[in-house]
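It is worth pausing here to work through a concrete case rather than discussing structure prediction in the abstract. The textbook approach is simple: state the sequence, then state the predicted structure, then interpret. We follow exactly that order.
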Amino acid sequence: MARFPRAVLFDLDGTLLDSAPDFVATSNAMLAARGRAPVTLAQLRPVVSKGARAMLSATFPGLADSERDALVPEFLQRYEALIGQQAVLFDGVAGMLRALEADGTCWGIVTNKPEYLARLILPQQQWQQRCAVLVGGDTLAERKPHPLPLLHAAQALGVEAAQCVYVGDDERDIQAARAAGMPAVAALWGYRLDDDDPMSWKADAMVADPAQLQQAGRWPTPPALPVSF
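Step two, the predicted structure:
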């Protein structure tokens, strides 16, 4: 009989949480302060999983890297002030998490979002007691696509990396999982550029809808644990 993994780690933005509306509001607050026209959801949504700098590049095209980087603190400050006001879970995520928990699977979050911002999401979703580990982009010396955050999270859960599955919507997520020796699921419902090719990421599974992951058989099967006598 198919079973859910012993442990699952998730990316946050674009995987569990549809946070693009919050980021559009953040960008538009910055644009309004400068007397500039607003950006649309269609313009910003594809780059949300690429991080603050990518969103700033879409919001203020033509800026030099140094000018863009100088805007990051303001972007994060404005985002913190409105975090969660418009963001919602993707359809099917709540049921997926309940299905995992009902089978005894522990789960956590590994995101490149700064940890202090990611932690603000937990009480908004009543995840304080449910999310077993949270690793942010600034928690450790490395961030995805480096495997360290995933390895650290698996260790915190007391699970071997090979017995844990990582789910993310960006190529960096799959790269980090592969480097960690962790089965990976590409979340096709998330944020992607038009020229992104998830097939080339070589994930262990590609899933179009979180609701599909309410079925144990849709998860990649980790290698069997060694038997002790």
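Step three, interpretation. The first strand starts at residue 7 and ends at 10. The chain has two domains: 7-18+87-218, 20-82.
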